[in-house]
Design brief:
The chain is of the alpha+beta class. The protein is built from twelve helices and twelve strands. It folds into three domains: 44 residues, Uridine Diphospho-n-acetylenolpyruvylglucosamine Reductase, domain 2, CATH 3.30.43; 112 residues, Uridine Diphospho-n-acetylenolpyruvylglucosamine Reductase, domain 3 (2-Layer Sandwich); 109 residues, CO dehydrogenase flavoprotein, C-terminal domain (Enolase-like, domain 1), CATH 3.30.390. The chain is globular.
């Protein structure tokens, strides 16, 4: 419960929003879709800074790929006609797996990344797409790798008074395939296992492999050892199986009332292998 909430702000600019978030005389937090704030019990919050009026809701094509505004509802990503090709397909697939239709109209692209719950679906997709995040602290801005932000923890990575304003995703052409799979008890439930894969071929060999997981671990992460099993190699069934096994090896697997650690250990390599096969099939077609 927000027991000490006394102020609600609707800034007209990013600069004004950042100034409010940097204020030292009160504890203000950013409000985008509101689903995270509704779920936490933070009694220290005194003010909410509504980001909905900052024109940060958009999905656009650029010469290099796509840009997605931080306050874009994930339903808009799921339904966007702008997102095409392997990168667009993966983004739409991940976005479409997030909760119910009602929740997808509230959950935002930036919120799904910054909140970074184990069940967040966009982060593993952004990891395999080598996405970048644009962060602003008023006028000054910096562009950082989503991978670095996730490894540190987005809330710790962002400086005081700094907000995520945009996500940049490069495009991948012919020879690239992607796959996204989410295992959950029901379609709208939290994920038990989330797997995202991107494979880029050069001839018969794998030029780049990206394998990212979530829900089986505390936060989304790439599995570098698994990727190395495929890169600069011809992806034979044995190598694919080795990559799937490596994705599980030394993973700090979570356990909860939805699924045990042992169950996740059994199912995860199967989903990884299927995602690799799917991405390779797409890359070759």
């Amino acid at each position: 419960m927000l027991k000490h909430l006394t102020q609600f702000y609707r800034p007209a600019s990013v600069e004004e929003a950042c100034a409010l978030l940097a204020a030292r005389d009160s504890r203000n937090v950013a409000l985008a879709g509101g689903t995270t704030i509704a779920a936490v019990n933070d009694t220290t919050i005194e003010g909410l800074v509504d980001l909905s009026g900052l024109d940060l809701s958009y999905v656009r094509r650029t010469s290099d790929g796509y840009v997605i505004g931080a306050t874009t509802p994930v339903q808009d990503i799921y339904k966007s006609p702008v997102l095409t090709g392997p990168a667009g397909q993966l983004l739409r697939s991940a976005a479409g797996k997030i909760g119910s239709t009602l929740l997808r109209h509230s959950i935002t692209a930036g919120g799904n990344l910054v909140a970074l719950f184990p069940w967040s679906d966009l982060p593993p997709a952004l990891l395999v797409l080598d996405a970048q995040a644009v962060c602003r602290r008023g006028v000054p801005k910096r562009t950082v790798a989503v991978k670095n932000m996730i490894e540190t923890g987005p809330r710790h990575y962002l400086q005081t008074g700094e907000i995520l304003t945009e996500i940049q995703v490069p495009e991948f052409g012919l020879g690239t395939g992607v796959a996204f799979r989410k295992l959950s008890k029901t379609k709208n439930d939290y994920a038990l296992i989330t797997v995202a894969v991107r494979i880029t071929l050069q001839g018969e060999e794998v030029k780049e492999a990206r394998i990212a997981l979530n829900a089986v671990c505390k936060k989304a992460q790439r599995r570098l050892d698994a990727e190395k099993q495929l890169e600069n190699m011809v992806p034979t069934p044995d190598r694919i199986a080795s990559a799937a096994a490596a994705a599980v090896r030394d993973l700090d697997m979570t356990t909860d009332f939805r699924a045990s650690r042992e169950y996740r250990q059994e199912v995860l390599p199967v989903l990884v292998r299927r995602c690799i096969d799917e991405a390779l099939h797409q890359a070759r077609s």
